Amino acid sequence: MSTDGSADSSDVASRLDELQRESQARQAELRALAADLPQATSRRAVLASMWRSIVDAPDKPTVLRRVTLKLLRAPADLVRSLRS
Fold it and tell me: What's the burial of 67, exposed, middle or buried (CB within 10 Å: 0-12/13-18/19+)?
């Protein structure tokens, strides 16, 4: 550390400016990623996608079992989310 306070404060100020620029760059990247994400999906679209997965799946029994278990868990998950 130097005894000259102005040199230290200019180093700190330049480092803060650099961090601010990096932060703004990351924010711009995140905004671009968020813009590329799809909008909220309707339940109907999700169910249609699940149905297509079942129809196109090479291992239909396993996929059907997973879908059934997920649908059976839905009421319990709903109750749990309403309680919290």
Answer: middle
* Cα–Cα–Cα angle for 45, 51, 52, rounded to 5 degrees: 90
- Token couple for 58: 């090479």
Q: What is the pLDDT of residues 31-64, one digit of tens each?
A: 988 888 777 778 888 889 888 887 888 888 887 8
Q: DSSP letter string over 1-65?
A: --S-HHHHHHHHHHHHHHHHHHHHHHHHHHHHHHHHSPPPPPHHHHHHHHHHHHHH-SSHHHHHH
**45 near 28, Cβ under 8 Å?**
no
Question: Comparing C-alpha atoms, which of 78, 76, 75, 54 is closest to residue 66?
Answer: 54
Cα separation, 74 vs 72, whole angstroms: 6
